[in-house]
Q: What sequence folds into this?
């Protein structure tokens, strides 16, 4: 009787684990074939048998890549990378999932050997504890949207697998490569580790014992100049008909409130309009896309609006008392934030009549 009871208890204990570990065929289907209409990057290639889970390409963007270990505990609010490289150009980001039973060392080494064979030199590399305790949290995590690789039309199951990727890792490994050429510097970053579970249930279980690899490539490319300047005459018409004028020609350094020199022609047209309408008072409104936290974006947009007011006053003699700077962050979009094009439209400055 005791033996039967013990067996029953054992089975009851193991049964939930067996159910939890059972693969979901719908989920596994995403790990057995590539993302439709997506292929490998010619500077990298892929590990045999792995599937391309996610891929994004941006004709021109900026990416910050770790070039030193992470500092701080994983739970600390002030954790950060000790060194970063900021690169601009064509940005390609991909997530691969290798077959089960392969080690992080084997899979990532295949990737890094392939990159090195193309003439790239390592800038920084680390493995395990040498990367720093908070490296995994800072580099890629489901609750840090700016780190994720998600296309605008991905299915719900694929999005959940992307969220589960790199959630809990064994033997994380990272290498940053650089290759200089006539057009500028090209960077390739390879980050990977063995999935050991996570907080996404079936999706974490599907990734268990599989090595995930994040590949990031930044190729030098000039940004296309596509935003038109709004003339003083156009501003007059827009204010009269809509109560506001929208500007895309006021540009800022990435993640800063410093106005770029190429913004000067647009500032001059704004000043021309304001001088022609000396009784007009206006709000200068800064807007961002939804990348990053709400509080940070509101603060950034407010600082940018304030920078515009100060530039109009200092460089063009406009009385700053006529202008009230305000930042709305991502709270008043004019397009979807799910696409690069939409986010570009949302990053703007507006002059709104009081």
A:
């Amino acid at each position: 009787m005791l033996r039967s009871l013990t067996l029953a208890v054992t089975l009851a204990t193991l049964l939930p684990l067996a159910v939890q570990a059972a693969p979901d065929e719908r989920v596994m289907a995403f790990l057995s074939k590539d993302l439709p209409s997506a292929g490998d990057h010619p500077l990298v290639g892929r590990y045999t048998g792995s599937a391309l889970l996610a891929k994004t390409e941006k004709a021109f963007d900026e990416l910050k890549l770790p070039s030193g270990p992470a500092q701080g505990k994983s739970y600390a609010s002030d954790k950060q990378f000790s060194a970063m490289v900021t690169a601009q150009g064509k940005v390609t980001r991909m997530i691969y999932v290798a077959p089960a039973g392969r080690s992080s060392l084997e899979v990532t080494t295949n990737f890094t050997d392939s990159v090195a064979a193309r003439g790239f030199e390592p800038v920084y590399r680390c493995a395990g504890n040498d990367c720093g305790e908070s490296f995994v949290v800072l580099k890629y995590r489901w609750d840090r949207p700016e780190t994720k690789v998600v296309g605008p039309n991905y299915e719900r199951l694929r999005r959940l697998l992307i969220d589960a990727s790199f959630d809990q890792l064994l033997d994380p490994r990272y290498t940053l490569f650089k290759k200089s050429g006539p057009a500028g510097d090209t960077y390739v970053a390879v980050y990977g580790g063995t999935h050991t579970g996570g907080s996404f249930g079936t999706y974490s279980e599907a990734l268990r014992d599989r090595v995930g690899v994040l590949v990031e490539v930044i190729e030098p490319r000039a940004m296309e100049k596509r935003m038109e300047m709004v003339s003083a005459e156009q501003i007059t018409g827009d204010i009269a008909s809509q109560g506001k004028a929208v500007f895309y020609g006021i540009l800022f350094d990435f993640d800063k409130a410093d106005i770029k020199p190429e913004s000067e022609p647009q500032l001059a047209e704004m000043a021309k309009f304001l001088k022609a309408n000396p009784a007009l008072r206006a709000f200068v409104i800064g807007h961002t896309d939804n990348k990053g936290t709400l509080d940070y974006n509101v603060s950034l947009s407010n600082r940018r609006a304030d920078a515009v007011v100060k530039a109009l006053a200092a460089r063009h003699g406009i009385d700053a008392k006529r202008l009230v700077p305000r930042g709305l962050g991502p709270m008043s979009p004019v397009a979807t934030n799910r696409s690069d094009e939409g986010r570009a439209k949302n990053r703007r400055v507006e002059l709104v009549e009081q």
Observations:
- The longest helix spans residues 294-316.
- Residues 232-353 form a domain with the 60s Ribosomal Protein L30; Chain: A; fold (CATH 3.30.1330.60).
- The CA atoms of residues 60 and 223 lie 6 Å apart.
- The longest strand covers residues 51-66.
